[in-house]
Design a protein that fits this description.
6% helix, single chain, mainly beta, seven-stranded mixed sheet, four-stranded antiparallel sheet
């Protein structure tokens, strides 16, 4: 069992930066892929980024490539999403997830464990 809790969301102006954190508990987290998804009101949840269990492989949605960076520290059971050059279109609830593979998250939106989400609002 893995339990994940997001933090770091907030209100920021366009062009600004935020760093989201995902703190996880559970012995299997360090051997799980981890990722970030986001959801705007009335829209489906979409993939943002994922990282392999070892941290050596990452993947990004085209909409955030070059602006967001995912990383993880398995010693701290924490995954980070550094977001820069934020745009109003990045406004959403951001969810952390843990699962079996980066590919399953990226291609199918599949994960075994989900956090409650943290709101990110980017003003123009």
């Amino acid at each position: 069992q893995v339990h994940v809790v997001e933090s770091g969301g907030g209100l920021v102006q366009a062009g600004g930066s935020l760093r989201l954190s995902c703190a996880a508990s559970g012995r299997t987290f360090s051997s799980s892929a981890a990722g970030w998804f986001r959801q705007e009101p009335g829209k489906e949840r979409e993939f943002v980024s994922a990282v392999s269990w070892s941290g050596d492989k990452t993947s990004y949605a085209d909409s955030v490539k070059g602006r967001f960076t995912i990383s993880r520290d398995n010693a701290k059971n924490t995954v980070y999403l550094q977001m820069t050059s934020l745009k109003p279109g990045d406004t959403a609830v951001y969810y952390c997830a843990a699962g079996r593979s980066l590919e399953a998250m990226r291609d199918y939106g599949l994960a075994d464990y989900w956090g409650q989400g943290t709101q990110v609002t980017v003003s123009s």
